[in-house]
Specification:
Largest sheet of chain B: 8 strands, mixed
Radius of gyration of chain B: 23 Å
Strand order of the largest sheet of chain A: 5-6-7-8-9-10-11-12
Largest interface: A-B, 29 and 25 residues
Number of strands of chain A: 14
Radius of gyration of chain A: 24 Å
Strand order of the largest sheet of chain B: 18-17-16-15-19-22-26-27
Strand content of chain A: 15-25%
Structural class of chain B: alpha/beta
Structural class of chain A: alpha/beta
Distance between the termini of chain B: 27 Å
Order of helices and strands of chain A: EEEHEHEEHEHEHEHHEHHEHEHHEEHH
Number of helices of chain A: 14
Helix content of chain B: 10-25%
Distance between the termini of chain A: 75 Å
Oligomer: heterodimer
């Protein structure tokens, strides 16, 4: 047991976070609060802190909170982190009630066009992440979190999964590599994420271990909803074993690509045109398709270059990819636009769907467009294109009715 | 309730006497009817001024002395230099040297650069300030230490108050980037160019004595003469009157926040869905990051659909100037320039029109340009479920901002407040605003990142935007969602019984009062 520990951040540029310092000393306990919202929520902050100290048997500790407008779930995460750092043997979790209605089960083949990365230990971006309409939101425990803050990030991400409504986006967590990632799962899986991103996967074995641990935890916590896996291929070896990885476990729904590490691994420099990674992207895409799962392209890292992003998405789409990573919310609509069908494809898709409807109505087994027969996979593709267009806001949901009116 | 207060038409308890002047309580929008005649300054005679037109005196101190500075007088100044003003502090340093006491300062706005004024408030040189109280001055007033009541007026309300004689200015000090010895002056030329001088118009027209202070003296005639020398008593030349680079405050850059950008985009889409965006329309967007971003989203739609505005009301920035130069609007009608591109455009482009609070905002005039604007986009610190809004105080009760042109702009055909639904842990939508600055009946739409709320009074807007695919929600719903995130409804800040400021409505009536905060955080 230490005599003093702290967690969180304070300072001029810190928002929606707080710094918590806990000290054990002789004499009665107290709570010292400095907060920019003291007039509005001072009572509420003190009540939560007092309750937590009591529940951890630390009522006699001295607790100082320097608050920059942290929401209750952040405040609780920081206090818990400080307490666990004070007493590393402490394993009890302090869980605030689940917010109702925020858990939305996912499906294997749902759209995964855009997935927004959020640094796991920074609370200010998560609360409104859902409003930007990404298909998935990733709470990141890996690269965006400093090694010394992994414990804090895990607790904050856990609380985020219990509290924040991502408004229909798939709830994703990127765990750490290797054993640290398995430890992450213990705290994350009970909070019912939809999907786990596993970084730097190089062989099927590691993924099988991850899968087994998740299944264990699902059973232990009686979680009925599936937890999907999206391994990230970001090394030469990973690319070679891509198919094995894609088929390592039934819960793998997509292969994703990380190019920063990959280009370093093969000794190339990452360029805008990306010739150095062309083979690898093709290999991963092909492996994913062979395994019957989705293929997701890397992120586009220049957040100010929206034209460049659109071109990059169109290229990824033309190669066969289903999605792209986003590091800024403003990239999301551009990614959706890029994956949406172009006008001529959309017109064609609409005609095919109308012909299909017509054939259904007339009880015909065969769909024909003019003199051309339409195969079922083509109809399926047309339906998917229409859905993409509707989701990107290019086509009204009621396009059939509107089509009739004209 | 004390005997000298009444409950006004907005349900707020207000004083009937503000700093010794009888003040009518707010009676409702358009309900107060003024009587009587405008205030008039004393008649002057050419015989008392130099025939050669040279009104230059040696120093600010000498000018104040000659203007007859006495205890208890009212001194005014303008804020076209925003946070780069170097004159106001010197005026009161000079007044202190002359031994004056109990002065009233009536700036068109004050900025953090005016923190040294606190010294003069403490020492008794200044009795109180009637003008925006923000930053260090806001904290000073909120702590209850200022002797008189602060009086916060809109830009139009300040013109109205001076015109109507509610505020009698003894000495107006007008910092002018270029002047001739006669006092003809402008703000568009010289090393300290700041744009227009419109905020000093009422002062020039109605003050007993007018002192022009410049750092760029030119021979007669100074052209253009935004202020006429025939209104001016003395001209003072000094080394430097302002720092134009500080005109550009932090509020004149596009926001980078993804949430604010989303709000700006939703606002532009709403304007489009409401049918406002059509050839010949007009809009006004202030200088905040969200409002500027809104203007850019609007610009892109205008470009794409070849729509041209008839006029855009500024606060001008380089973004509006670009739109003018690109031909997306016929005119900019500009009351104040927010950056140096705006200053240059006002000087060089005949379609960039210099306006002032008389032509733009004055409620006691023969018509109101503000009510001719199709859509205006404004900020607010709080709104309540009746769409009333607060723009002057923080949720913890401290004075934070001036009113600026905000109240005046509410008369636009469509008033939209694009605001975040909460800031960190501060909900922006509340049951009742801490300080009432604008009545809900004039505020049509609130755009937040969590949805758009339309004032139920605007059935037309509700109908027009129903099927536009916009996230339109009830204001109570957004409020409940945010409160649930923040851990319940916030506590009310604790106030003392001591009034520290009055908030005037555009017609000079008192719409609300501000009390001092119990314990400053």
């Amino acid at each position: 047991m230490n005599s003093r520990a702290e967690a969180g951040r304070s300072g001029k540029n810190v928002r929606s976070d707080c710094l918590v310092i806990i000290e054990r000393h002789d004499g009665p306990g107290d709570i010292v609060l400095k907060s920019k919202v003291a007039a509005l929520y001072g009572r509420s902050i003190r009540a939560l802190a007092g309750e937590m100290l009591t529940s951890y048997g630390l009522s006699d500790a001295h607790l100082a909170i320097d608050d920059s407008g942290a929401l209750p779930y952040t405040l609780a995460a920081r206090i818990e982190t400080a307490i666990r750092r004070l007493d590393p043997a402490m394993t009890a979790e302090y869980l605030l009630p689940y917010r109702e209605g925020i858990i939305v089960p996912s499906q294997r083949d749902r759209f995964r066009r855009s997935r927004l990365y959020l640094p796991g230990n920074d609370p200010k971006l998560a609360v409104n992440a859902g409003i930007h309409g990404a298909d998935g939101v990733i709470l990141d425990l890996e690269d965006s979190v400093a090694p010394a803050e992994k414990d804090a990030a895990r607790i904050l991400v856990r609380n985020t999964l219990r509290e924040i409504d991502f408004m229909g986006a798939e709830r994703m967590v990127r765990i750490n590599q290797g054993d640290a990632g398995l430890a992450d799962l213990n705290m994350i899986i009970p909070q019912r994420p939809n999907l786990i991103l596993v970084p730097k996967v190089e062989d099927a074995q590691h993924l099988r271990i991850v899968h087994a641990r998740i299944e264990e935890l699902r059973a232990a916590h009686a979680i009925a909803d599936e937890v999907f896996l999206m391994p990230i291929i970001e090394s030469a070896k990973g690319a070679v074993f891509a198919y094995d990885i894609a088929t390592a476990a039934p819960s793998v729904v997509a292969l994703a690509i990380g190019l920063e590490d990959y280009t370093a691994d093969i000794g190339a420099e990452r360029t805008l045109e990306g010739r150095e990674s062309f083979w690898m992207r093709g290999a991963v895409l092909n492996a994913a398709r062979a395994a019957g799962i989705q293929a997701i392209d890397t992120v586009f890292s220049d957040v100010s270059d929206m034209d460049g992003l659109l071109a990059s998405v169109r290229e990824a789409k033309s190669l066969g990819f289903d999605g792209k990573g986003c590091i800024h919310p403003r990239q999301i609509p551009v990614v959706h636009q890029g994956f949406a069908p172009e006008k001529k494809d959309l017109d064609k898709a609409m005609n095919i769907v109308l012909a299909f409807d017509d054939a259904q109505r007339r009880g015909l087994g065969v769909v024909a467009l003019g003199s051309k027969m339409i195969d079922p996979p083509v109809v399926k593709r047309a339906l998917r294109n229409i859905e993409l267009a509707v989701k990107a806001g290019l086509l009204s949901e009621h396009w059939k009715e509107e089509n009739n009116e004209q | 309730m004390s005997s000298n207060t009444v409950i006004n038409a907005a349900g707020r308890e207000v004083l009937t006497n503000i700093n010794g002047v009888e003040s009518a309580p707010y009676a409702g929008v358009g309900k107060h009817h003024p009587a009587g005649r405008k205030y008039a300054p004393p008649i002057a005679s050419c015989a008392d001024y130099p025939a050669d037109g040279n009104k230059i005196v040696g120093s600010l101190r000498e000018a104040l002395e000659r203007a007859g500075l006495r205890d208890g007088m009212t001194i005014s100044s303008h804020h076209h230099f925003r946070n780069g003003d170097l004159v106001a502090n010197q005026v009161f340093d000079a007044a202190a040297d002359l031994g004056a006491r109990d002065l009233r300062w009536v700036p068109s706005a004050a900025f953090p650069c005016h923190e040294p004024i606190i010294r003069h408030l403490e020492s008794g040189v200044i009795h109180h300030i009637e003008g925006s109280l923000n930053g260090p001055l806001g904290d000073y007033a909120s702590s209850g230490r200022m002797r008189g009541l602060g009086v916060l007026r809109s830009h139009g309300g300040r013109y109205q108050a001076i015109q109507d004689g509610e505020v009698h200015v003894d000495i107006a000090v007008i910092a002018a980037p270029t002047s001739d010895p006669f006092g003809n002056c402008n703000g568009v030329q010289g090393p300290s160019a700041c744009g227009g001088l419109g905020f000093a118009l009422a002062d020039a027209q109605y003050a007993d004595k007018v002192i022009v202070v410049t750092d760029n003296l030119v021979p007669f005639p100074c052209v253009p003469w935004q202020i006429h020398g025939n209104l001016v008593d003395y001209v003072v030349v000094m080394d430097k009157i302002g720092e134009p680079e500080k005109i550009v405050s932090g509020t004149t850059n596009i926001t980078k926040s993804p949430d604010r950008l989303l709000i700006a985009e939703l606002t532009a889409r709403f304007v489009d869905a409401a049918g406002i965006l059509k050839d010949g329309f007009s809009f006004q967007a202030g200088a905040g990051g969200t409002a500027l971003s809104f203007a850019l989203f609007l610009r892109d739609m205008m470009r794409e659909r070849r729509i041209k505005a008839r006029f855009v009301r500024g606060g001008s920035t380089r973004y509006l100037v670009d739109m003018l130069e690109e031909g997306l609007t016929d005119y900019i009608l500009d009351g104040q320039t927010f950056d140096l591109a705006g200053v240059q455009s006002m000087r060089d482009n005949p379609r960039h029109i210099h306006t002032n609070p008389f032509v733009s905002y004055n409620y006691h005039g023969k018509g109101n340009v503000a009510s001719m604007v199709d859509v205006v986009v404004l900020g607010a610190t709080e709104v309540d479920v009746q769409f009333n809004a607060n723009v002057v105080s923080h949720s913890d009760g401290r004075l934070l901002h001036g009113i600026g042109g905000w109240q005046n702009c509410l008369f636009s055909k469509c008033t939209i407040l694009p605001i975040p639904s909460f800031r960190d842990r501060i909900p922006v939508i509340v049951d009742q605003v801490t300080t009432l600055c604008g009545p809900g009946e004039l505020i049509d739409v609130i755009v937040t990142e969590r949805g758009i709320a339309i004032n139920p009074l605007r059935r037309d807007l509700i109908d027009a935007t129903r099927n536009a695919g916009l996230p339109i929600r009830r204001i109570e719903e957004i409020k409940a969602e945010v409160e649930s995130l923040c851990g319940g409804a916030p506590d009310k800040p604790a106030f003392t019984d001591q009034f520290i400021a009055a908030i005037k409505w555009v017609d000079g009536t008192v719409i609300d009062m501000v009390r001092s905060v119990e314990r400053m955080p």
